[in-house]
Amino acid sequence: MPTVFNWQLGREMSYPYEGGHPKRQFAFVFNLNRCIGCQTCTMACKSTWTFSKGQEFMWWNNVETKPYGGYPQWWDVKILKLLEEANGEPQRWDVAQRDEKKPYGVYQGNTIFEAAEKHIGPEPQRVLGYLPSDEEWRAPNIYEDNSTGYEGGKLGLSKEGASLPEHKTWFFYLARICNHCSYPACLAACPRQAIYKRPEDGIVLIDQQRCRGYRKCVAACPYKKAMYRPSTRVSEKCIACYPRIEGKDPESGGRPMETRCMAACIGQIRLQGLVKMNPDGTWAEDRYNPIYYLVKVAKVALPLYPQLGTAPNGFYMPPRWVPRRYLAQMFGPGADEAITKYLTPDRELVAVLQLFRKTNRIIFRYAIEEGPKVYETERNGKPFTLYNDTIIGYGEDGTELIRTQVEEPVHVRPAQHLNSI
Description:
Elements: E1 3-6, E2 11-14, E3 24-31, H1 40-49, E4 62-66, H2 75-87, E5 93-94, E6 106-107, H3 112-117, E7 172-176, H4 185-189, E8 195-197, E9 204-206, H5 216-220, E10 226-229, E11 234-237, H6 242-245, H7 260-263, E12 270-276, H8 290-297, E13 302-303, E14 314-317, H9 324-331, H10 335-343, H11 347-352, E15 365-369, E16 373-379, E17 382-387, E18 390-394, E19 400-405
Parallel strand pairs: 3-14
Antiparallel strand pairs: 1-2, 3-12, 4-7, 5-6, 8-9, 10-11, 13-14, 15-18, 16-17, 18-19
């Protein structure tokens, strides 16, 4: 196999095709500390794209409750077990080699592409994977709101109670769409070469004229976001609402817009954008792009299961109350640092967090106007100062899209009646 550089692994890895990257890449950040599991994003996507015959069990966007939920059921448990069996050990990282080009260190194990090279079986594999059963697709909300067990049994009570930074009894919501990976497993596995990345924005699409429904993409995608449609006998997947990204949505005014799931988010957990790419697949420096800042500068947003090797372009701010070992196997070795920075954010991070869901247009650049000091305190043993700064988000053409403050304004209405509301 050819080799490509995967910056999330900090090294070169095997991949069936030579590396080729767009000038800009569709990417997003989800703040899991804010997700309330309302499924508004899920239904926004469903009502837009997958409401037809044969799409009943297609949920391009879903929100699952971890640690037990998943769609399809046990999707992550199964692929992690296969990868661990292929490696002979759990994931292992050399964090001593961290630098700007290797922000998480160097991954020491095999990826799903490298593990497939060593596979011995009735037919060769390009990607280590599995094909879910029909039963595993039938319950998108399985184990919703189910927490880990209580001390003393299911209905027992904790003797110590619950307190941060980690809860002994916990669950959290994991919102998911296609990650539009830099090295997609679905693309690598397709024998028809029906799957491709758009050169203008890196969105991964399936050419349904070429697809023959072999379901190799379904088996290969470790996140299980390529799905088979029995009524047409071809596969389909999230298309990142590309007409909105292109600015062709009727309400866009010709400007790039966020996807339907992003724009519908009630919990304000989502921020989406386009990041500049270098020829080797690394991100070009774009200091005041909010996605670049959260991932590369603040380093509070991490890829989902980076050890798989697909270089996903979806990034998550880990939930602060969850045991760190669980988060490390899900988001890699940067989880502790990300949570520490989130718990005691610096001045710039506090301001950038205000951009989440403030506009349905894509923000390409931000600027901060400094405001007065609001108060000082200590958080998690560290000094913390809050400033009422103003953050401004700009569009691709430099037009101001949003202007908001760290502190929300308070409006007091004159009381004319007993119930003045």
